[in-house]
């Protein structure tokens, strides 16, 4: 460990692994350390014994729910947009060669006490029972606008300037009712709250277009999920024999304690100490837990991992779904998210389902009660594990001391906010925006090197 590295990354959460991979393929010498003896850090996937040890130490899992090795339970479950940035990150770093994805079977929204499939095209809009007769026509015109919009063709803009007009201006132009606005903003654009309404419309329009394009790619839903759980993704960067780490010169160390981040006389990072060893570097990337004195807590996320004996009711017995419960439907300031996967994804025993309910904590009482709207959708719950995690963000941008800290994972059941953090961190670290270009495969690069 007593060497000098271009960059040291602390923690094997997905944000850290993506940045480690991006820098590695750019030729940087990267040392990647995690104090845990497993990959994934906060977003690890646990087997049954690990799950019980974490939440119910001293107890053992009941034999009736299946074998230990049948389970890979995500602590922070998130789905991937089929056309989203997370897929581009994994493709750019060639990690997709180690992963197999399965589509999430359905995307739903809770409205007026019921679960509805999320329509994403003008055809689905006019057939969905989510809209009334006249609202269907208005929704159809909105989706036609979304599908036909071209930046370089003013005739498709319908008089709207997406950088000047707010999203409420767009909704008003198409005469969309508050219920439709709520569905579009939360179930398709996947905004966390209603703050977006008074912001320029471009971001929301692009998010809805991404949702629709991802939906069109495979049908059923816009989401993908890796077999064996999200813990497979960090392992794709490091664990396999011919891995990204091995090809590009990165070094991974698990179960390695980190005693301190070392600074020079000018307050800039100079290394990382573990016991008597110091690895030298002028750049550190880490999750908030490795730099607790440099982050602030801005809220909390409550999550409940639920083991079910059945699919979520009213979802056509789907083996996997996302359900968004918009804030306005339940009198909250933040949405509640339900993500469900099953044995079809090799994450639990046959005929079992994993449902995870999450939201931002708003009150000072019992955080678990804030998930009640999600629990009501699940039916009988076999086992439940509840956790509350702080939402942390860096106090500074990292440019002064060259310690760049990621944000905590939020309550959403998708990776788009994680991708935003990767882009932000990469620009702060390199001074340049992240541009994912088409690159050669590992086989092609090896062949070129051999030649």
Describe the SSE topology.
Layout: E1 4-5, E2 7-10, H1 14-25, E3 30-33, E4 45-46, H2 48-55, E5 73-74, E6 80-81, H3 85-92, E7 101-103, E8 106-111, E9 114-117, H4 122-127, H5 133-148, H6 167-173, H7 178-188, H8 202-218, E10 223-226, H9 232-238, H10 244-248, E11 251-253, E12 260-263, E13 269-274, E14 277-281, E15 284-286, E16 295-308, E17 321-325, E18 336-342, E19 353-360, H11 372-378, E20 383-394, E21 403-405, H12 416-430, H13 442-450
Count of alpha and pi helical runs = 13
Assigned CATH superfamily of the domain at 4-46 and 230-295 and 393-450: FAD/NAD(P)-binding domain
Cα separation of the termini: 32 Å
Would you report the number of β strands?
21
CATH architectural type of the domain at 4-46 and 230-295 and 393-450: 3-Layer(bba) Sandwich
Given as residue ranges, the uncertain stretches (5+ residues, pLDDT < 50) are 441-451
Task: Give the helix/strand class.
Answer: alpha/beta
The strand order across the widest sheet is 9-8-17-18-19-16-20
Measured by DSSP, the beta-strand proportion falls in 15-25%
- Specify the CATH class of the domain at 4-46 and 230-295 and 393-450: Alpha Beta
Examine the coordinates and then state which fold CATH places here, giving the name of the CATH topology of the domain at 4-46 and 230-295 and 393-450: FAD/NAD(P)-binding domain
Largest sheet: 7 strands, mixed
Tell the overall outline: globular
Mean pLDDT: 88
Radius of gyration over C-alpha positions, nearest whole angstrom: 23 Å
Give the helix level as a range of percent: 25-40%
Protein name: Rab GDP dissociation inhibitor
GO molecular function: Rab GDP-dissociation inhibitor activity
InterPro entries: FAD/NAD-bd_sf, GDP_dissociation_inhibitor, RabGDI
Organism: Umbelopsis ramanniana AG
């Amino acid at each position: 460990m007593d060497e000098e590295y271009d960059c040291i990354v602390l923690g094997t959460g997905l944000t850290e692994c993506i940045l480690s991979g991006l820098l590695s393929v750019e030729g940087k010498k990267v040392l990647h350390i995690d104090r845990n003896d497993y990959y994934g850090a906060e977003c690890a996937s646990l087997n049954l014994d690990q799950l019980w040890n974490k939440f119910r130490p001293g107890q053992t899992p009941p034999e009736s729910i299946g074998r230990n090795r049948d389970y890979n339970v995500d602590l922070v479950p998130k789905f991937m947009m089929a056309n989203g940035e997370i897929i581009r990150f994994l493709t750019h770093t060639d990690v997709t060669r180690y992963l197999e994805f399965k589509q999430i079977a359905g995307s739903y929204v809770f409205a007026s006490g019921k679960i509805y499939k999320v329509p994403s095209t003008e055809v689905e809009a006019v057939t969905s029972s989510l809209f009334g007769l006249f609202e269907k026509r208005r929704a159809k015109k909105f989706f036609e606008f979304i599908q036909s919009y071209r930046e370089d063709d003013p005739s498709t803009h319908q008089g709207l300037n997406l950088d000047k007009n707010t999203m409420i201006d767009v909704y008003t132009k198409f005469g969309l009712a508050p219920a439709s606005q709520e569905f579009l903003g939360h179930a398709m654009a996947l905004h966390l709250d209603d703050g977006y309404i008074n912001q320029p419309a471009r971001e929301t329009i692009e998010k809805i277009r991404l949702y629709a394009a991802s939906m069109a790619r495979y049908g059923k839903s816009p989401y993908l999920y890796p077999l064996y759980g999200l813990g497979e993704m960090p392992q794709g960067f490091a664990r396999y024999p011919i891995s990204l780490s091995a090809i590009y010169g990165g070094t991974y160390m698990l179960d390695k304690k980190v005693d301190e981040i070392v600074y020079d006389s000018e307050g800039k990072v100079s290394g990382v100490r573990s016991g008597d060893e110091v690895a030298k570097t002028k750049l550190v990337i880490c999750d908030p837990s490795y730099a607790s004195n440099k982050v602030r807590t801005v809220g909390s996320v409550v999550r409940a991992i639920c083991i079910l004996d059945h699919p979520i009711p009213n979802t056509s017995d789907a083996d996997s779904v996302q359900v968004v419960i918009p804030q306005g439907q339940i009198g909250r300031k933040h949405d509640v998210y339900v993500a469900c996967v099953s044995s079809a994804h090799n994450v639990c025993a046959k005929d079992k389902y994993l449902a995870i309910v999450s939201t931002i904590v708003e009150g000072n009482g019992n955080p678990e009660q804030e998930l009640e709207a999600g629990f009501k959708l699940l039916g009988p719950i076999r086992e439940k594990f509840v956790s509350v995690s702080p939402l942390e963000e860096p106090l500074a941008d990292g440019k002064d001391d060259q310690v760049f800290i990621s944000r905590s994972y939020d309550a959403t059941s998708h990776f788009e906010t994680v991708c935003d953090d990767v882009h932000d961190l990469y620009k702060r670290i390199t001074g340049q925006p992240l541009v994912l270009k088409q690159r050669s495969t590992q086989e092609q690069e090896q062949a070129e090197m051999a030649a």
